[in-house]
Amino acid sequence: MAEPIAVDAAREGRVADPEDGVLADGVFTNRYFDLAYPLPAGWKAGLTGPPPSNSGYYVLNTPTPETGSKATLLIAAQDMFFAVEPMANAMALVEDIGRSAGGTAGLKAESEPRQVTIAGRSFARVDIGGVVLSRVVLATDIRCHIVSFTFASPDPQLLARLAASLDKLSLPADASATGTGTSEAGSSVPICVENYATDATILRKVAPAEVGPKFLKIPVRIIIGRDGKVKHIHVIRASPGQAKSIEDAVANWEFKPYDVRGQPVEIETGLVFEFKPTDR
Length: 280
Prior knowledge:
By secondary structure, the chain is mostly beta strands.
């Protein structure tokens, strides 16, 4: 596996979010996912992607070849807490991609979805053949997100070389195609715990002021410290007014600490808010 690549020191002072990746000096780094990817020779930053969706889908980066290479790359992540169609892990995602290709004219899965080892970590892979364009999708679970690399090109040999470029990846030890590498106590990142915010675990709760658009599902990830207090709030998609309202309220929430073998640990979990008209 490649040696870890340092990220921008100026960004170290705050908690990272999934969209905080940067591409500099030919290397895409993302501190939230503890990931670094040296791009293939001759590739550069592409167009800026859209903001995260309400279902927690992120376009992390879209590198592009400078000249002469007919290929594209999409680096993306799907938050498993908020996906429209729940996915158990990266393998389930590529299996779904393979099935979808089989039902689309001009596309077919050229091999069964399978586990492969990249940079010493477990990935799920599926190869999709097309009349005009073929794709290779490689995905792995990191911090309850499915991180995927999708290469596309009309040239199968070029696709194979691009997929092999991921061998230079640096990524965390718990990356896994099947979710079996989820962080445990003692990890440098919080443990992911789905749906931890319940009446049984919330000790203090402040309702956010209802502002902005109504009836929209607003996904929020929070980090809860060992003392049960909220350490970080990431409003994934909302209007500025709604984001501030939620941040101001949730900063005052307190939880029952999450224990692992009798010891409190730091966790990351998800919340969904929906502002509705107040009955008068």
